[in-house]
Design brief:
The chain is of the alpha+beta class. It has 10 helices and 14 strands. Strand 4 (61-64) and strand 5 (67-71) form a beta hairpin. Keywords: FAD, Flavoprotein, Oxidoreductase.
Amino acid sequence: MKAPPFAYVRPATLDDVLAELSGGDGKVLAGGQSLVPVLAMRLGRPATLVDINSVAELHGFDAVAGALRIGAAVRQRAVERAAEARAVPLIGMAMPFVGHRELRSRGTVVGSLAHADPAAELPAVAACLDATIEVAGPAGRRRLPASEFFAGAMTTGAGPEDVVVAVEFPAARPGEGFGFAEIARRHGDFALAGVATMVRVGGDGAVETARLTGFGISDRPVTRDVTPFIGEPDLRGPMAELAAEIVDTAGDAHGSTGYRRRLFGVLAARELATALSRARREVPV
């Protein structure tokens, strides 16, 4: 199918981007790996595509104050290959599952967050780490934690006249370990169920915090504090109970709700155990 008619602009400054979005009938174009298929299927009909690739400040990618800041125009492949990204191990674990290499060469990290597909990997990473998402709009800039940013399927805290400027992922600290896994029909397909985990231990190896985010299981990434469960000798039981609570995606041709619950429970138990093992290896001597 062909996209419906639209105007195309390529502003050079963020102020010009916001001016073009004024009125709410424009759509931001960065990598286009989510937007272009939506247009081709005529699921969206924006009057104007606002290409942000000429805005220099949106290409920023660096470590600042214990966090990795990624601008809205930074490609996923650039982050995947960058030494700076090692400060956030969960990004490196998730990135190979994001589509295919060719798509990651054009797609942007921030674009994936702004698209907010409930089965996407990077929103789950942001939710698990409670990353900070910076949004610019007519009223100025604001910073939203990931826990408040994802409002539902393809729905975020950014309005139609806003642009997501950057995301800041907190850098890993000593004593933290991470896990990531998903199940899909084929590599590169959207996940039937997936989990991202983070466990932090103290100097004695005792668990201080454990977080788990599930994706592909509801209308947004679902995060839970699972610290009380980490002391269990077998996590499969508690995670099966958690799956019954939070997995509510309707069954389809790829798998029933019950099947997704079983996938989530097994992955969650395994990746929490993996994160705990890695955290204890990272405890400073």
